[in-house]
């Protein structure tokens, strides 16, 4: 399958990064969100990233302009009618995603592949909301997308082999390393990472140590580049909570119970770096 036009849905931290790497690889990209100001915010993040690359001498001004010119803003899902591949990166919520995939299934041509950047939600269930389950696949990028090499590719129960192969080759064209996994809650990355983050939060909740101490121990003791609570703030505490809930519901085991402190922070609007406050204060 030949992919030329890519539509990215959701212009937040992941969607803007995905749009950037697609445009850098030469694809023509439509970046879509619910409101024009959200899309412009995403394009602003991309411009800032590209400016930094120009300053560091990795890109020249004309290349930057060429990359930006390949990105078009959208607030209408009807624009899916031109896409060969749609990559969804909206909030980690099954109802929102299935609603969206139902609509995409209506607007996108029959050949279009519908991919989700979900961190943990079952691809098979998202696929079942469409009439093309064989063309639905998980394409899980890591944050920050322009920097991180991995794309975890998740095969839904009915994902066709040629769809998998197309997404594998697109990932390589984006200069990423694809790794194949099957569809189980949290896939591999978050099945392993998120219980560790949740345990770090429990350690703070139970008064065993401060967030700074927990992070310092995991950095210096385990050689992690970033402590689990700094990482949680970076991922977004709302996203962490959604992922823990998905693991808890999917496996039914108490070991995946989200820490009450995580729930409390999310209820308070402390979502981590993106909201200015999480386990740390970002002074916004
Ligand atoms: P975010 O909160 O930064 O961005 C989400 C964007 O989606 C917002 O701009 C919002 O306006 C938009 N949106 C929400 N509902 C929409 C709809 N119905 N139609 C169009 N746009 C809509 O979230 P983030 O961090 O970018 O996460 C997005 C997805 O990527 C989630 O599924 C998350 O689990 C996944 N993910 C997140 C990672 C992270 O480190 N934050 C890493 C890998 C995957």
Structure notes:
The structure is a single chain. The chain is 47% helix and 14% strand. It is an alpha/beta fold. The chain has 2 domains: 5-182, 3-Layer(aba) Sandwich (Rossmann fold), CATH 3.40.50.720; 191-274, N-(1-d-carboxylethyl)-l-norvaline Dehydrogenase, domain 2, CATH 1.10.1040.10. Helix 1 packs across helix 2 (36-55). The longest helix is centred in the N-terminal third of the chain and has 20 residues, at 36-55. Residues 9-15, 33-34, 38, 89-92, 96, 100, 117-119, 140-141, 143, 235-236, 239, 274 line the site of 1,4-dihydronicotinamide adenine dinucleotide. Residues 6-183 form the 3-hydroxyacyl-CoA dehydrogenase NAD binding domain. Residues 186-282 form the 3-hydroxyacyl-CoA dehydrogenase C-terminal domain.
Concise summary:
Keywords: Oxidoreductase. Residues 6-183 form the 3-hydroxyacyl-CoA dehydrogenase NAD binding domain. The protein has two domains: 5-182, Rossmann fold; 191-274, N-(1-d-carboxylethyl)-l-norvaline Dehydrogenase, domain 2, CATH 1.10.1040.10.
Give the helix/strand layout.
Elements: E1 5-9, H1 13-24, E2 28-32, H2 36-55, H3 61-69, E3 71-74, E4 85-88, H4 94-107, E5 113-116, H5 123-128, E6 136-141, E7 150-155, H6 161-173, E8 177-182, H7 189-205, H8 211-222, H9 228-235, H10 237-251, H11 260-267
Parallel strand pairs: 1-2, 1-4, 2-3, 4-5, 5-6, 7-8
Antiparallel strand pairs: 6-7
């Amino acid at each position: 399958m030949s992919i030329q036009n890519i539509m990215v849905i959701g212009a937040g931290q992941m969607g803007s990064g995905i749009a950037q790497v697609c445009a850098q690889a030469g694809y023509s990209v439509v970046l879509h969100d619910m409101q024009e100001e959200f899309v412009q915010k995403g394009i602003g993040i991309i411009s800032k990233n590209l400016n930094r690359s120009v300053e560091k001498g990795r890109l020249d001004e004309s290349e930057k302009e060429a990359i930006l010119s390949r990105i078009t803003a959208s607030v209408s899902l009807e624009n899916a009618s031109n896409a060969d591949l749609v990559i969804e990166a909206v909030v980690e919520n099954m109802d929102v995603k299935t609603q969206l995939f139902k609509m995409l299934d209506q607007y996108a041509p029959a050949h279009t592949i519908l991919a989700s950047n979900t961190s943990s939600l079952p691809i098979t269930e998202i696929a079942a909301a469409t009439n093309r389950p064989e063309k639905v696949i998980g394409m899980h990028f890591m944050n920050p997308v322009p920097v991180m090499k991995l794309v975890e590719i998740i095969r839904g129960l009915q994902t066709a082999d040629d769809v998998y192969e197309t997404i594998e080759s697109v990932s390589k064209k984006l200069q990423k390393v694809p790794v194949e996994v099957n569809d189980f809650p949290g896939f591999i990355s978050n099945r392993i990472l998120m219980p560790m983050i949740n345990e770090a939060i429990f350690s703070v909740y139970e008064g065993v140590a401060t967030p700074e101490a927990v992070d310092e121990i995991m950095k210096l003791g385990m050689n992690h580049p970033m402590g689990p609570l700094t990482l949680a703030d970076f991922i977004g505490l709302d996203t962490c909570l959604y992922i823990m809930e998905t693991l808890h519901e999917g496996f039914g085991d108490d070991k995946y119970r989200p820490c009450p402190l995580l729930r409390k922070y999310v209820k308070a609007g402390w979502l981590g770096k993106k909201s200015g406050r999480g386990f740390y204060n970002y002074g916004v």
